[in-house]
Design a protein that fits this description.
4-stranded antiparallel β-sheet, 384 residues, mainly beta, single chain
Length: 384
């Protein structure tokens, strides 16, 4: 999702915007370091940027990062990256390949997406070397999820339950507004399979229209975590859980400016951090102040299944997914850019896996405050 980041964000304000206590529990996430390169770097006549989702290909030792370019710069695409990371941090990030994504499942070859037909936000590599890629919207602002080969060929689409599908009607000003389903540009920012590839989890960035308000200075927003089984008969939705975000961390400056907080990424981690099922990345924004980014460990145990609830009650009276704050990026001494993606990376010499978190630079002009930011964490499997 696009953000405007203003110059003058001061790290000295970190303590002011740190309203949560880590408590006695040791976090399993240890920041190793960060790396960045400038916005609008060119690679093979394309503008590198808008990196909104990332997946790690352990067999080939590379990463795939999807761009949310809607065709305004070049055709929708993903990049192949090499990220050099060790116990001291990220040494280098190199763009080594580009793949244009196909829009036509029935025609051989790559038929690039038309302008505005996609807005890619996450991608996940499956065990059969194919990719699932989520798009927040098409030309009619309807979300969709595609299944692609590694060469970019479109293989098909995943079904999305009806309650998530956007419905629009003219608003008071005559312009379309969402009256049901996913709000415009707030769709599935996080999709993640389990290691067996038998189950897929998805989360929308902000509450469905019928599920209540978006995040404010007083309260968070109620997203849904959707579980799908990826069986031989095709994807099958099986359950849904409520995930409540934190409230927005700061008031806008000047008053009246935009603010928000939502889930910009989600990954399955029980195979590397057994205490948790998932990690979520919550990215908050306050106009004139900047970003605040939190990483949470999430457990679905005992969460109420709301699959048969079309519209959540206000307030929600069931049991939400449990979450534990594991890291606040600002409190770690890092000024967070528009962080939108994360992935479990290679293991360190001590056996602990890495966590890579990356930003979407929104294709900022040269000299603007946004950058392509990469953070590396060690995931300490001994921490409790």
């Amino acid at each position: 999702m696009r953000r405007t980041i203003l110059i003058g964000l001061a790290l000295a304000l970190a303590a002011v915007f740190w309203p949560w206590s880590v408590g006695a529990q040791q976090s399993p996430l240890k920041l190793l370091g960060q790396f960045s390169f400038e916005s609008r770097r060119m690679f093979q006549d394309t503008t590198v940027g808008g990196l909104s989702g990332i997946s790690y290909d352990a067999k080939r030792g590379v990463y795939y990062a999807v761009s949310d370019d809607r065709g305004e710069n070049q055709s929708p695409r993903f990049y192949t990256l090499q990220i050099e990371v060790d116990a001291t941090g990220i040494k280098d990030v190199q763009v080594v390949g580009i793949t244009t994504l196909d829009s036509d499942v029935s025609t051989p070859g790559i038929q690039p997406f038309a302008l505005g037909a996609s807005d890619f936000e996450d991608l996940q590599l499956l065990a059969d070397d194919t990719l699932l890629i989520s798009s927040e919207r098409d030309q009619a602002n309807i979300p969709w999820i595609g299944h692609f080969a590694l060469d970019g060929s479109l293989l098909g689409f995943l079904p999305i339950p009806e309650k998530f599908m956007s419905v629009y009607a003219p608003g008071p000003d005559g312009r379309p507004q969402t009256v049901y389903g996913i709000r415009n540009n707030l769709a599935f920012e996080g999709i993640t399979p389990t290691p067996s590839n038998q189950t897929l989890y998805l989360i929308n960035e902000g509450a469905l229209t019928q599920d209540g308000p978006l995040s404010t200075l007083d309260a968070g927003t109620n997203d849904r975590i959707l579980r799908m089984e990826l069986g031989p008969d095709g994807p099958r939705p099986t359950s849904e859980y409520v995930y409540t975000t934190n409230k927005v961390f700061a008031a806008p400056d000047p008053p009246g400016g935009p603010i928000d907080n939502g889930v910009s990424a989600m990954i399955w981690v029980r195979h590397v951090l057994p205490t948790y099922d998932l990690l979520t990345l919550e990215r908050a924004f306050a106009f004139g102040v900047g970003n605040d980014v939190n990483i949470f460990g999430v457990m679905l145990t005992d969460a109420t299944d709301v699959r048969d609830v079309d519209a959540l009650p206000q307030p929600f009276t069931g049991r939400s997914a449990q979450k534990t704050l594991l890291a606040n990026v600002r409190a770690l001494g890092v000024e967070p850019d528009n962080l939108e993606a994360m992935v479990v990376g290679p293991r360190l010499p001590n056996g602990n896996p890495t966590l890579i978190v990356i930003s979407d630079d929104n294709f900022s002009a040269a000299g603007a405050p946004q950058i392509n930011q990469f953070l590396a964490f060690e995931m300490d499997q001994s921490a409790h």
